[in-house]
Structures are given as structure tokens and as C-alpha cells.
Amino acid sequence: MKKFSNPKVTIVTPSYNQAQYLERTILSVLNQDYDNLEYIVIDGDSSDGCKEIIQKYANQISYWESQKDKGQTDAINKGFSHASGDIYAWINSDDTYEPGAIKRSVNYLLTHPDVGMVYGDCNFIDSEDQIIGKFNAKQTDYNRLRNGFVHIPQQSSFWRAHLWKKVSPLDDSIYFAMDYDLWLRLARISKIIYFPELWANFRLHGDAKTVAEDDRGWIDMVKIHYRDGGKPFSPLIAKYYIRKLVAPVIKARRKRMMNYSRIIK
């Protein structure tokens, strides 16, 4: 990272047909109290009004496009191909940052030069921004990640750009767990640290991949495990089969969280 007190931070938002939430995501970035910010939005030719929302804020967005792509992972790679910052992060088009998150993450990385990536806490929110739970964030590392001990909220993770340049691009054949793949690559070459402070919000709603297709995440993790030389008899594979058994329970619990938030309003 460049040696000055306000390094440039690049935030990428991959977007596709999330007009209901996109403006809240954009404002959570643009309203941050950090002035050296580069914001990039890559939309996959949405048909629900996303393009018009992006255009509304075009004078505050460093780069944007709305073209067909190969999906979320491809959009993230595209976004960072236009990046010029010293610290990188991405926030999906239905999630949000907490006020001050970027400044606090920058301060952590400035005061801990040996750390390559820092991640904070993250709330689960519903479609109306109501808090319905908390992500189970914990400290992990390369070996624990390989064993399926993830516990990193993608929404609240920030890493050094020079490390991205060493490990990118993301594998666009990975549909769901591209973030897990990135964390493995970063943790292999640098220190990643959990800082217990609330930085972001992870939205759960009926159309979210995490709710509708949660099982795809572990399928991707298994694919990455074998791609990187993993063995059939390993903690990650055992966890995959356990997760497969309890997946209906997890999915039902997340739906109950969303339904409960509707009932109490």
C-alpha cells in the first residue's frame, strides 16, 4: 500500500436485477465518510431499472457499465480490472455498508502493515433493512479455511490491492463460493484478521442466492478443495456431507428469520 494517510479505496458492486435494493447499496457506499474513494458498478444488462438507478448517481461513480456478462464472478473481475485503488472490496447489490466502515477498515490496515486482509462483523437484515440476526464471524486462517472453517462475512472484508494482483482473477467457473476461493488465495500469502466491529449488512430475501441456492456454496467449496489438491478424507468433505443433511433445516431457519421480521412490523 502507498505510504500516506488516506490510501485510495476501490469498491466494486456487481449488479443484476436487484433494483429493489441497489439504490440502498449505492448510497451506503457514497455516503461513507471517506473521501479517497473509487466506486465501480458492473451491471449485467438488468431489465428491472438498475441502469436508471446507476445513471442517477453516475457523476459520483468512477466507472460503470451495463452489459451482458457471465455472472457475478465475471462482473467482479471486470470491476477490478478498472480499479486503481490501494485497498479493494466488493459489496453486492443487495447488501450495505455501515456508516464509517471504510474509514475504520483503512485505519486498521494502516496501523497493521503485516495484515493483508481485515474483516469485521456483519448483521443479517431483511428486505426492509431490519436486523434479523448476526453473521457468525470468527478468526480463521489458511489451514482452517481449507478445513471448511470459513466464518468470514464477504460484505465486511477489505484487502490490499497488490495482493489481488498476485492472486486474481477469480475463477469464473465458480458460481457461489468465489469469495471463499479469494480468501484461500489471500490467506495462503498473507495474514487475514478478524476485527470485531460492525461494518456491513448481509440482506436475506427470497431472491438472494444465499437463501434460494445455499447448497451451491458447499458444492463450490468441494470443487475448489479438489482443484487445489484436497483429499477425499478431509474435514471439509465431512462437513460438506453433514451440511447436505442439515441444509433443509438451515434454509428453513433463514426463511423463518425473514418471515418473523415481516410479522413483527
Question: What would you note in describing this structure?
Answer:
- It is a single chain.
- By secondary structure, this protein is an alpha/beta fold.
- It has one domain (9-263): Spore Coat Polysaccharide Biosynthesis Protein SpsA, Chain A, CATH 3.90.550.10.
- Helices cover 42% and strands 21% of the residues.
- It has ten helices and nine strands.
- It has helices spanning 19-30, 50-56, 72-81, 101-111, 142-146, 161-167, 178-189, 209-212, 215-227, 235-263, and strands at residues 9-15, 37-43, 63-66, 87-90, 96-97, 115-125, 131-134, 157-160, 191-203.
- Strands 1, 2, 3, 4, 5, 6, 7, 8 and 9 form a nine-stranded mixed beta sheet that branches.
- Helix 9 runs antiparallel to helix 10.
- The longest helix is centred in the C-terminal third of the chain and has 29 residues, at 235-263.
- The N and C termini lie far apart (45 Å).
- The mean pLDDT is 92.
Secondary structure topology:
Elements: E1 9-15, H1 19-30, E2 37-43, H2 50-56, E3 63-66, H3 72-81, E4 87-90, E5 96-97, H4 101-111, E6 115-125, E7 131-134, H5 142-146, E8 157-160, H6 161-167, H7 178-189, E9 191-203, H8 209-212, H9 215-227, H10 235-263
Parallel strand pairs: 1-2, 1-4, 2-3, 6-9
Antiparallel strand pairs: 4-8, 5-9, 6-7, 6-8
Task: Sum this structure up briefly.
The protein is an alpha/beta fold and 265 residues long.
Feature tags:
single chain; 265 residues; alpha/beta; Spore Coat Polysaccharide Biosynthesis Protein SpsA, Chain A; 9-stranded mixed β-sheet
**Annotated CATH architecture:** Alpha-Beta Complex
**End-to-end C-alpha gap:** 45 Å
Order of helices and strands: EHEHEHEEHEEHEHHEHHH
Count of spatially separate domains:
1
Q: How would the global form be characterised? A: globular
Looking at CATH, the homologous superfamily is: Spore Coat Polysaccharide Biosynthesis Protein SpsA, Chain A
Structural class: alpha/beta
Percent of residues in helices comes to: 40-55%
Strand count = 9
Low-pLDDT segments, ≥5 res: none
- Binned strand content: 15-25%
